[in-house]
TrEMBL record, chain A:
One of its GO terms (molecular function) is branched-chain amino acid transmembrane transporter activity. This is Branched-chain amino acid ABC transporter permease. InterPro entries: ABC_transp_permease, LivM-like. Keywords: Cell membrane, Membrane, Transmembrane, Transmembrane helix. It comes from the Bacteria. The keyword Cell membrane applies. It comes from Brevibacillus fortis. Pfam families: BPD_transp_2. The keyword Transmembrane applies.
UniProtKB/TrEMBL annotation, chain B:
One of its GO terms (biological process) is L-amino acid transport. The keyword ATP-binding applies. Keywords: Amino-acid transport, ATP-binding, Nucleotide-binding, Transport. The keyword Nucleus does not apply. InterPro entries: AAA+_ATPase (IPR003593), ABC_transporter-like_ATP-bd (IPR003439), ABC_transporter-like_CS (IPR017871), BCAA_Transport_ATP-bd_LivF (IPR052156), P-loop_NTPase (IPR027417). It comes from the Bacteria. It holds the Pfam family ABC_tran. Belongs to the ABC transporter superfamily. PROSITE patterns: ABC_TRANSPORTER_1, ABC_TRANSPORTER_2. Residues 3-232 form the ABC transporter domain. One of its GO terms (molecular function) is branched-chain amino acid transmembrane transporter activity. This is ABC transporter ATP-binding protein.
C-alpha cells in the first residue's frame, strides 16, 4: 500500500472512530437522530454511487428500492410483533423484492442506451408512488402510518450505533466489491462501455449485477429510515428522495463511496443548520435557497466532488514522482 | 484464411455505409485498408467486431461465421481491436489495464505480455502510471499491447498514426511490423508512406466499397490509382 493510500485509510478510520465516540461527547437526542439520518442516507447515496459513479448508469427512480425497504419493514412491524426477528424478515423481503425488481428492470433496459434505464426506473418508481397512494387499506396513502419498533431500536443511542455499524460494514463490503476484478470491470464500463465489451466482457451481465447490488443496499437504507421515523408514507417513493442521493454522492464525489458519506453529512448538517437559523431570522425559513446556493458553490469549486477533487490533487502529486516498477511487481 | 468478409452491408441509422464489402486477410500477414475520410474503413473494423452490426453478408474468422455474434463473443474468439481513439481507460494504471485485458491470465497471456513489454519498454517504465497521463504515443502502444494480450491471432488496428509526431509514427510502424511474426494484422491507415512499408496486401475503399485490392507493391507502382483514391502521387 502506498503512503498516500495509507493516509487515506487512516483518515477514513479516523472519521469512523470519531463517529463512534461522538455519543460520549454529546447526549443530545437530536444529535443522535441527525447523525442516524446521515448514516442512513449515506448508505442510500453509496448505493446510488455504485450505479452512477462506478458504472455510469443513470437512475431517476432509485427511490423505488428505498421505498420498498421502508414499506416492507414498516408493514411487518405494524402487522406482526415489533421484534428484531420481524424487522429482519422485513429487510429480507425488501432485499428479495428489490433484487428481483432490479433484475427485471436491468434485463429490460440495460441492453439499450443508459437513458432507457433512467426512464424506466422513473416510470416504475412513480407507478409505485401511485400504488402506495391508492392502496390505502395497506399503506394509508399519503397520510402514512406509525408503527412500533423493536426494543433495541427504541433507544436512540443504540439505534445510532446500529446504523453506524451497518454503514461502516456496507462501506467496507462495497469498497471490496469495487476493488475486486468485477468492480474494475464496472469502472471500465463506466469509462468506455464499447471498449470493455471489445475486450470480451459481457457488459449486460455486469450492469445487471451492479443494479441488483445497488437496489438491495438502497432497500436496506429504506428499512432503517422507516424505523428511525417510526412512520412511513408515500414520500419515500418521491423523486426528491432520488435527488437527495444524487446530490449527496455528487457533492462528496462520484465513484469514491466515501464521498457519499461525506456528502450525506454535508447535506443533512446544512439542512439542519439552516433550519435552526430560521429561529434567528425569517430569511432562513427559505433554507432551500441557501441549500441550492451551497450545491452550486460545491459544484463550481469541486466539479469532481470533495473527495474526488482531493483524490485528483493527490493523484497529480503522485504521478509526478512515479518511478519504474521492478520487474517482479508485474502481472503474476 | 484468417479472416474473410463476404459482401457485408452495414447501416448506421438510415445511412447505408458499407455496400457489399469483401476482403480477405491471410494468416501471418499485415493487410492495410486505405481510403479517404468517410470511405468506410472504420465501419469495416467496427462491423468485424460487431460494434456496427452487419445487415447482410458473412464474416468468417478461421472459417467460422462470426458476423451475427455479439461484440464480447467475437472478442472471446480471439480478435483484438484497437480503436481510432485508442479507447484507453484513463483512470486505470498500465498495470490495471493489463489485468483487465488478461481475463484468462494463463501462461500464454503472460508470455504475450512479457513480449509486449519488451517491444514497448515505455509501458514497463510507466507500469504504475495512470493511462490518462501517458503521452499520445504511449497510449497507442498501450492500446495495441492490450489488444494483443487479449487476442488470439488477429489484430484490427484503426489509424494508429493519428495525432502522433512523425518520429513516433515511424517507431510505431516498426513495432507493428515486428508483431507480424506472432500475429495477423488488419490495419486501417491514411499514412500511405508508412503503411506501405510494412503492409504486404492492401485494399482500397471508396464510398463504402472495395475498389482495389492486391499486393502492396502493385499500389506502390500505380500512381494513378493512388492519385485517384488517396489524393497522393
Amino acid at each position: 500500500m502506498t503512503t498516500s493510500g495509507l493516509l487515506n485509510h487512516r483518515f477514513i478510520l479516523f472519521v469512523f472512530l470519531s463517529l463512534a465516540v461522538l455519543p460520549f461527547l454529546s447526549d443530545s437526542r437530536s444529535i443522535y437522530i441527525l447523525f442516524t439520518q446521515i448514516f442512513i442516507f449515506a448508505i442510500f447515496a453509496m448505493s446510488f454511487d455504485l450505479l452512477l459513479g462506478y458504472t455510469g448508469i443513470v437512475s431517476f427512480g432509485h427511490c423505488m428500492f428505498f421505498g420498498i425497504g421502508a414499506y416492507s419493514v414498516s408493514l411487518f412491524l405494524k402487522n406482526f410483533d415489533a421484534t428484531i426477528g420481524y424487522f429482519l424478515l422485513g429487510v429480507l423481503v425488501a432485499i428479495v423484492l428489490s433484487g428481483m425488481l432490479s433484475y427485471v428492470i436491468g434485463m429490460l433496459s440495460l441492453r439499450l442506451k443508459s437513458h432507457f434505464y433512467a426512464m424506466l426506473t422513473l416510470a416504475i418508481s412513480q407507478l409505485l408512488f401511485v400504488l402506495a397512494e391508492k392502496w390505502r387499506s395497506l399503506t394509508m396513502g399519503g397520510d402514512g402510518f406509525t408503527f412500533p419498533v423493536p426494543e433495541l431500536f427504541r433507544d436512540r443511542l443504540s439505534f445510532y450505533y446500529v446504523c453506524l455499524i451497518l454503514m461502516v460494514m456496507l462501506f467496507v463490503i462495497l469498497r471490496a466489491f469495487t476493488l475486486s476484478p468485477l468492480g474494475k470491470v464496472l469502472k471500465a464500463i463506466g469509462q468506455n462501455e464499447q471498449r470493455a465489451e471489445a475486450l470480451g466482457y459481457q457488459i449486460l451481465h455486469y450492469k445487471v449485477i451492479v443494479s441488483i447490488v445497488a437496489g438491495v443496499v438502497a432497500a436496506i437504507s429504506g428499512g432503517l429510515y422507516a424505523v428511525m421515523l417510526r412512520f412511513v408514507n408515500t414520500q419515500v417513493f418521491s423523486i426528491e428522495t432520488t435527488l437527495d442521493a444524487l446530490l449527496m454522492s455528487m457533492i462528496g464525489g462520484l465513484g469514491t463511496l466515501f464521498g457519499s458519506i461525506l456528502g450525506s453529512g454535508i447535506v443533512e448538517l446544512a439542512h439542519h443548520g439552516l433550519t435552526e437559523l430560521a429561529k434567528l431570522h425569517p430569511i432562513f425559513e427559505r433554507w432551500v435557497i441557501f441549500l441550492g446556493l451551497l450545491y452550486i458553490l460545491v459544484v463550481l469549486c469541486f466539479p469532481s466532488g470533495i473527495v474526488g477533487s482531493f483524490q485528483e490533487w493527490r493523484e497529480k502529486r503522485k504521478q509526478r514522482s512515479v518511478q519504474p516498477a521492478p520487474i517482479t511487481e508485474q502481472v503474476e | 484464411m484468417m479472416l474473410q468478409l463476404d459482401q457485408i452491408e452495414t447501416y448506421l441509422d438510415q445511412f447505408h455505409i458499407l455496400q457489399g464489402v469483401s476482403l480477405s486477410v491471410q494468416a501471418g500477414s499485415i493487410t492495410v485498408l486505405f481510403g479517404r475520410n468517410g470511405a468506410g474503413k472504420t465501419t469495416t473494423l467496427r462491423s468485424i467486431m460487431g460494434l456496427a452490426p452487419i445487415r447482410h453478408g458473412q464474416i468468417r474468422y478461421r472459417g467460422e461465421e462470426i458476423g451475427h455474434l455479439s461484440t464480447y463473443s467475437i472478442a472471446r474468439k480471439g480478435i483484438g481491436y484497437v480503436p481510432e481513439n485508442q479507447g484507453i481507460f484513463h483512470d486505470f494504471t498500465v498495470e490495471e489495464t493489463f489485468r483487465l485485458a488478461m481475463q484468462k491470465n494463463d501462461d500464454e497471456q503472460k508470455e504475450k505480455l512479457a513480449w509486449m513489454l519488451d517491444l514497448f519498454p515505455d509501458l514497463r517504465h510507466y507500469w504504475k502510471k495512470k493511462s490518462g497521463h501517458l503521452s499520445g504515443g504511449q497510449k497507442q502502444m498501450l492500446a495495441i499491447a492490450r489488444a494483443y494480450v487479449n487476442s488470439n491471432g488477429l489484430l484490427l488496428i484503426d489509424e494508429p498514426s493519428k495525432g502522433l509526431a512523425p518520429i513516433m509514427v515511424e517507431k510505431l510502424m516498426f513495432h507493428i511490423e515486428s508483431m507480424k511474426q506472432k500475429t495477423t494484422v488488419l490495419l486501417v491507415e491514411q499514412n500511405f508512406m508508412m503503411a506501405s512499408m510494412i503492409g504486404e496486401q492492401y485494399y482500397l475503399m471508396d464510398e463504402g466499397k472495395i475498389v482495389r485490392g492486391g499486393a502492396m507493391q502493385e499500389l506502390k507502382d500505380d500512381a494513378d490509382t493512388r492519385q485517384k483514391y488517396l489524393g497522393i502521387a
